[in-house]
Design goal:
This protein is of the alpha/beta class and 328 residues long. It has one domain: Aldolase class I (TIM Barrel, Alpha-Beta Barrel), CATH 3.20.20. 30% of the residues lie in helices and 17% in strands. It has eleven helices and twelve strands. Strands 7-8-9-6-5-4-3-2-1-10-11-12 form a twelve-stranded mixed β-sheet. Helix 1 runs parallel beside helix 2. It starts with 10 loop residues before the first strand and ends with a helix.
């Protein structure tokens, strides 16, 4: 699957639900309205759509959300997708807030998942509860250690938030090193209305990286995923530091991914509004698998060159949907 700019599309991110058990301040408004259940694809439909993508060359699938692990029955989707590993699919991963991991980590491993990303912006319990509006750090930590014990390789994602966790990056890097986790820092992206102004939180990671490199030996790493992260090897810990800087660094030229929402809408770019509806072809009995594949190929032929994110005071979000719709 090649897009108009010759980029090979081999990575699909699937938001399996827009719902979440937390309300991180930079991600959602406190009184978010979620989609009515009737609009959401069944897990069997998501599996069939993913199968069509795999038959067209997608090699990696990441389930995300909202919080993917709060969707009822989601383990059955992990199992059906996991069964595709080796048959076109090379890897099945998940991005989660970790709240359900303590009870699900073993099942995820059994389904074929080997690597997971867990979002945790702070190691301070009070800050964690403030950022997530009601989350408990201990629950996420229990989840992270259950995942490690289950044999899953864990990467920690933290959004860099000025005035919230900006004194903590050394501690996070050291903590991740202690337990053998990579750490990725993410700049806030202007997606969806939230109650606060994101300009207040926005912290350019170029600054953070310069500051960290005074105390840590950071060497640019050859590791690349075709995504927005740039990686550094951290000599002192032997782990990697990833930095996602959509605002200060344009990563679009090597983009290999598209994003599917839980209603069957395919976004060809995280930072653009253009989308393709795959639910209609999926549900059209006349079309079958060939028609579904044609609909996917036609969407890929419209993948834009890149995003137009800008964070400015009073500028409003660059795209109106929340990150929880497309899953980041
Ligand atoms: N609930 C899961 C979690 O938190 O990992 C998966 C979905 S969440 C939307 C995926 C990632 O997007 C998380 O790491 C989260 O911190 C990040 N995120 C959410 N809103 C963001 C924003 N406006 N800018 C940058 N990152 C954001
Ligand atoms: Fe939920 Fe993840 Fe958004 Fe936080 S970042 S509100 S955990 S979807």
């Amino acid at each position: 699957m090649l897009d108009p700019f010759g980029r090979r599309i081999s990575y699909l991110r699937v938001s399996v639900t827009d719902r979440c058990d937390l309300r991180c301040t930079y991600c959602m408004a406190e009184d978010m309205t979620f989609l009515p259940k009737a609009k959401v694809l069944t897990l069997e439909e998501i599996d069939r759509l993913c199968g069509a993508f795999v038959s067209l060359g997608v090699e990696r699938i990441r389930l995300t959300g909202g919080e993917p692990l709060v969707r009822r029955g989601v383990l059955s989707l992990f199992r059906s997708l996991g069964a595709r590993i080796g048959d076109g699919l090379k890897e099945l991963t998940v991005t989660t807030n970790g709240s359900q991991l303590a009870k699900m980590a073993d099942d995820l491993f059994a389904a074929g998942v080997r690597r997971i990303n867990v979002s945790m912006d702070t190691l301070d319990p009070a800050t964690f509860t403030a950022v997530t509006r009601w989350g408990k750090l201990e629950q996420t930590l229990d989840g992270i250690f259950a995942a490690k014990a289950a044999g899953l390789q864990v990467k920690i994602n933290a959004v860099a938030l000025r005035g919230v966790n900006d004194g903590e990056y050394d501690r996070l890097l050291a903590w991740c090193g202690q337990y053998g986790f990579d750490l990725t820092l993410i700049e806030t992206m202007p997606m969806g209305e939230i109650s606060a102004d994101r300009t207040d939180y926005y912290l350019p990671l170029s600054e953070v990286r310069r500051d960290l490199s005074r105390r840590w030996t950071l060497t640019p790493s050859a590791h690349a995923t075709g995504g927005p992260a740039r990686y550094y090897d951290v000599a002192e810990t032997g782990q990697r530091l990833g930095v996602i800087t959509p605002m200060t660094h344009n990563f679009c030229e090597s983009c290999n991914r598209v994003r599917l929402t839980c209603t069957g809408t395919l976004y060809m770019c995280l930072g653009q509004e253009d989308a393709a509806d795959l639910r209609a072809p999926l549900r059209d009995p006349e079309l079958g698998d060939v028609g579904l594949r044609d609909a996917i190929l036609s969407a890929i032929s419209r993948k834009p060159r890149g995003h137009d994110f800008v964070i400015g005071r009073n500028a409003g979000p660059a795209v109106s949907r929340h990150m929880s719709v497309t899953g980041g």
